[in-house]
Amino acid sequence: MSKTAIIYWSGTGNTEIMAKAVLVGAAETNPETELFHVSEITPDTAASYDTLILGCPAMGSEVLEEEEFEPFFTELEASLAGKKVGLFGSYGWGDGEWMRNWEKRVEDAGGNLLGGQGLIVNDAPDEAALEECRELGKSASES
Fold it and tell me: Which domain holds residue 69?
C-alpha cells in the first residue's frame, strides 16, 4: 500500500476542516494515512511519501499562504516528479486563480495531479463539500 500524507495550512479553520474530511476518506482504504499541519513536517520528510494531499487556502491576491506553506511547497516542488498529488483549499474571494497556479506548478514539477484539478470550496465547507473531500482522500489512497 502506498504511503500517504495529508499536509495543510489553515487560517480560519476551513481548510483544516477539509483536511480532516480528506483523512476520513483516506482512512477507509489506507488507515495508515497521516495528517500534518505544515509546521509539523519538513519538505524532506514529505518527499518520502508516495502520495501527497496538500491543502492551503487562497491568501492575499490569490496566492498560497506566504509565511509557512509557500516556502514548504517551494522546497517540496523539486521532489514531486512521479508522485500522486492531490490539492484542496478554501477561498473567500476571487475565482480560484491560486488553485490554477498551484495545479500548474505541480504539473510542471512532474507530479501526477489527482483528478486533474484541485478541490476548492468557497468559505466554510458544507456537507456536499465535505463529501468531495472524503472522496478525494479515498481515491488518493486507493492505489
Answer: 4-141
